[in-house]
Amino acid sequence: MKEKIINMLKDRGITLEEIAEIVLDMQGPYNEDLTLEECLLNVNMVFEKREVQHVILTGVALDKLAEEGKVEEPLRSIIVNDEPLYGVDETLAMGIATIYGTIGITSFGYLDKAKPGLMGRLDNKESEFVHTFMDDIVAGVAAAAAARIAHTQEVGELEDDIP
Ligand code: MG
Question: What is the C-alpha to C-alpha distance for residues 41 and 46, in angstroms, rounded to an integer?
């Protein structure tokens, strides 16, 4: 299932490396030894979680269905136009962001506002894809990976305790 999800993202123009870059950007200032490889490893761990996989399956399906005109109005226009007050995309992705505890909420909020790197590209309305759910999925995965790194630093040698 994990590989299927990763390929699904790839088909939509998203790589795990780009998500890892966002994580490094966020966590780098708190840990100068942090590498892109470590961030990528933590992003991979987030994708192992069944709850995360389910959110991604659901969000990407809604983006694609809206794109293909297979969602009824008025929902289709709301998703295609990424209506600012829709909010269901954020609500869904919060389930990813908080997978390692509420620490992920702050990062998720920051990413939603600042839209660094890949996030900015996904927000670009010129894209051939509808990314209404995808931008929040990416923010959720990056926030969860950052939370995992923060927890790993806290517990130090007990790292194995973190699933
Ligand atoms: Mg969105």
Answer: 9
Residues with beta carbon < 5 A to ion ligand 1?
A: 89, 132, 135-136
How far does the centroid of ligand 1 lie from the alpha carbon of residue 134, in Å? 7
DSSP-derived letter for residue 71 is: S
Give the global pTM: 0.92
* Ligand 1 centre distance from Cα of residue 156 (Å): 35
Q: Any alpha helices (H) in the chain, and if so which ranges?
A: 2-11, 16-27, 36-47, 50-67, 75-80, 88-97, 103-114, 118-123, 134-155
Let me know: does 41 contact 24? Beta carbons within 8 Å. no
- Would you tell me how many other CB atoms lie within 10 Å of the CB of residue 33? 7
| pLDDT tens series, the chain, 163 aa | 999 999 999 999 999 999 999 999 999 988 889 999 999 999 999 999 999 999 999 999 999 999 999 999 999 999 999 999 999 999 999 999 999 999 999 999 999 999 988 988 888 777 789 999 999 999 999 999 999 999 887 655 455 566 6
CA-to-CA dists, residue 63 to 114, 148, 156, angstroms: 22, 28, 39
